Amino acid sequence: MFSKVARKLSTSIKDKPWMMKKSAHHNFWNNSVRNLLTPSVASNTSSLKPFTVVLEETQKQHISKQNNGVKGQCREFLSALLPPSQESLPPRTMEDSFIQALIPIGSNPDVRLQYTSHIGGARLGRLVQDMDNFAAVVAYKYIDNPLQGPEEPSAHAVVTARMDHLHIREDIKNDADIKLVGHVTWVGSSSAEVGVGMEQMEDGVWKKVCEAKFVMVARDAATGTKSAPINPLVVKSDDEKILFELGKNNIASRAKADQDSLFKEPPSTIESNLIHDMFLSTVDHKVRSFAARVKPENSTWMTDSKLKSVMMCEPEHKNDYNKIFGGLIMEKCIDLAFTNTWVFTGAAQVPVCTHIDDVIFLKAVEIGDLLYFHSQVVFTHETQVQARVSAEVLDRDTKRLKLTNVLQVTFKLPSEVPHVIPQSYHEAMAYLTGRRHFLISLENEGLLAKGMAEKEMTEVSKYTPLWMLKELDTEEHVFNKHNVQDMLGEDTFMEAEITRDIRARESGLLS
Fold first, then answer.
1. How far, in whole angstroms, is CA 26 from its chain's centroid?
2. What region does 233 belong to: left with phi over 0, alpha with psi -120 to 50, or beta?
3. Most CB atoms within 10 A, among 35, 44, 130, 363?
4. What is the number of other CB atoms lying within 10 angstroms of the CB of residue 411?
């Protein structure tokens, strides 16, 4: 029975008729649905404003003025500027929010030093931090409030709710200029999806290197607690309609993913069978104890795949609303995930990040908070690693940690990586969640056809530990008993030394 299951689980990915190959046709389809709008007039590098200048202008125009004057009077003034409803605001287009900015990594040595990684190439965490800031700039550019004069502060406070599907297409170099491109792709009543793309100069041509979706929410700047309506979005061209529908589908997908979360719903039957088969393939059947576990060859227990760090949140880390900047937290999480993956694999080669997903901002972090970062490798497949990273704040009163941020990061290495194996039920749930995000990353990279990630989550597929093949085959003789009498006829008593060893293992797992 187990050998049949194993053969099903090891079905080759090449035999899947729905697998997408990276043909020219597929690349065109994939790019056409994920690209941002192209400006009607192409801009050259000399006409682009540096990103730092664009960010500073936005802060001065929309944010800094919110803190001027007496605090109480400023709040009353900002409340008066807040539009009563979305209907009272003029419609806007995607083009109204379109903006570009330059990060002069290649042309400015001082800037290059800030973005250069010690392992070569550009610092991904630092660039993601800039993309987060840039998404806020796009959102502020989109909002047009008739009640607000040109010299008056903004009644809206824009913050990041989440970042989805950061897909890295190419290696990002540290010796060529980078261009950020972004605009709104979907708008709700008080939230907007912002698409941000990153391009890098290569042989005189801008080449796309990565892109991501940010969900930005608008709050009442006077209090920061209640939602603030933003302008409705009108779509004109066919390209805009496609982007809007994609944004709409993304919102629905996020809602469904939250509903199907393993925190709310049990694993599917296939996933439950997968975890059970993994468990049986690591049990030492010779001693007949569920607590006696055996690691397969080239594998690591998930509990040993952790890495932690801590940060004291200082005033220099604050954003414009006196909270800890979310982009900085993302940078710290990405850096820890990278380090953990490198330590876990023990490889001489550097892990390459290919996808970042499910970046959620659950709770604002205050100045003076003690921020704990926790990274764990939760899924591996051939040469790829899925790491989960969380950030938690220590509650000084209860001494308990409260989750503030979580994200999933996919890395690729040039050689096969060790298998990661869950030992407990909560580790098994982390494994399944990581597996789900890994399949989504393959879909976004174009290695799986659209919609097939969900199919793979509920069907037997290749994305199952290959070590189960050998383990399940060797275990077949254990369960191939004709009847209970055959088992009772054997000498089932264990020697004292074996019994002590099992008890030691069980006490170690329970402690």
1. 24
2. beta
3. 130
4. 25
Share of the chain above pLDDT 70, in %: 73
Q: Are 291 and 509 in contact (CB under 8 A)?
A: yes
pLDDT cut 90: percent of the chain above it = 29
Largest pairwise CA distance in the chain: 91
Query: Tokens 């996020």 belong to which residue?
Result: 254
Instruction: Note whether 39 and 98 are within 8 A (CB).
Output: yes
SS3 state of residue 357 = strand
Instruction: Give residue 211's region: left, alpha or beta (phi > 0; psi -120 to 50).
Output: beta
- Residue 281's pLDDT is 78
Q: Report the range of poorest mean pLDDT among 4-8, 316-320, 483-487.
A: 4-8
Among candidate residues 415, 341, 447, the one with its CA nearest the CA of residue 385: 341
The span from the CA of 347 to the CA of 508, in Å, is 30
Alpha carbons within 13 angstroms on the beta-carbon side of residue 198 total 30
Residue-wise DSSP of 444-471: HTTSS-TTHHHHHHTS--S-S-THHHHH
Paired with 355 in beta bridges are 167, 410
Q: What's the pLDDT score for residue 67?
A: 54
Is the model more confident about 121 or about 489?
A: 121
